[in-house]
Amino acid sequence: MSQRPAVLGNEAVQAHAGQVTVDLSAITDNVGRLRRLSRSSHFMAVVKGNGYGHGLVSAARAALDGGADWLGVAQLAEAIALREAGIAEPILAWLYLASADNEMIERAVASGIDLSVGSVEQLRAVAGASRRQGRRAEIHLELDSGLSRGGARLEDWPELVEATKQLERQNVLHSRGAWTHLAWADVPAHSANSASVLDFERAVHEAHMAGLGPLTRHVASSANILDRPDLHFDMVRAGLAMYGLSPADHINPAAFGLRPALTVTAPLVLVKRVPAGTGVSYEHRAMTHESRFLGLVPLGYADGIPKGISGHRLVKVGGELKPVIGKVCMDQFMVDLGPEAGGISVGDTVELFGDPSTGAASADMWGEAISSHGDEIINRIAPRLVRRYRA
Ligand SMILES: *Cc1c(COP(=O)(O)O)cnc(C)c1O
């Protein structure tokens, strides 16, 4: 039996009416601004999650153009894909399975990718890969300063430092950095951040006393780049802000001259008038109280449009934001255009989210509507929507 070709998905992509436009100059400009704001000598652009939905390699290149000198990803496969695209700058990856048969670790070491190490198991796995490759791996020791995610807890830190030191002596690997990610990263003024940073400084001191380093220290993600210059250390790690999104409830990216890079649009595929008392979409959760014009948008939850946006005024059409009416379906939803069509007709472009300075809703506004944030919105956009890049 012949295998079903993967092309099926691509055909759907080519036929899809929805468009994702990525303005790469926005990423480049945003990185330039953030780099000028940061006090650190190094700047890591975080491009995990397919560059926060903007495209891994394109986002990385745009960030490097803006002055980033490091790239950060979660997965080894992402890091390797960046190398395969010809990117030679330092890359740190921080999420992988520490097992001897994880050949991705070997590939990462062979590709000169720095690896985060937060446990003795991870250290051993990286050391094994280094030995087999005959190449000294560069590692960044990760402290768990309270997030309880990756990293070694402070009480386990001395053991990790000692084991690292032994492997350094054998020239198997080299510790280049030390880092932590704050549990209250998105609430810069939170008092827990000060305690976490004190622990981090203590851990770095211990490592230096043991003879490791000098270690490149990095703690701050977007919110702390903008709000806590005292946490910048030797490198900052920027995600949300470099894509022009808000990293914290009280931070408006536009106030820092940052603008969103990503816009989602689609053409209206139908415009029609319905009388008062008409139920709209499944279960008639919405009813018209008067004669209304409705527009049909060919995007739904299969494209990453959250059901929770129903009733929210988020869709720009005819120069104004209009509310989504009725339940969002798998491939489509309706927009309430108002009592008059106001010149809006089939084929007109609707803008779902983009740059708020143009009157569109931002991904952050969409996030707020579903009690989340802009990052969840942009990461949900389905691969079947083609990304188009503007330089
Ligand atoms: C995602 C991530 C970042 C970037 O966070 P933003 O808030 O998007 O700037 C930084 N560091 C680590 C470890 C991350 O996982």
Automatic annotation (TrEMBL):
Substrate binds at residues 149, 330. The active site is at 48 (proton acceptor), 282 (proton acceptor). Its EC number is 5.1.1.1. It comes from the Bacteria. It catalyses: L-alanine = D-alanine. Keywords: Isomerase, Pyridoxal phosphate. Pathway: Amino-acid biosynthesis; D-alanine biosynthesis; D-alanine from L-alanine: step 1/1. Its cofactor is pyridoxal 5'-phosphate. Residues 261-390 form the Alanine racemase C-terminal domain. Signal peptide: none annotated. GO terms for molecular function: alanine racemase activity. Pfam families: Ala_racemase_C, Ala_racemase_N. InterPro entries: Ala_racemase, Ala_racemase/Decarboxylase_C, Ala_racemase_C, Ala_racemase_N, Ala_racemase_pyridoxalP-BS, PLP-binding_barrel. The modification N6-(pyridoxal phosphate)lysine is found at residue 48. PANTHER family: ALANINE RACEMASE, ALANINE RACEMASE, CATABOLIC-RELATED. Catalyzes the interconversion of L-alanine and D-alanine. May also act on other amino acids. Belongs to the alanine racemase family. This is Alanine racemase. It comes from Sinomonas terricola.
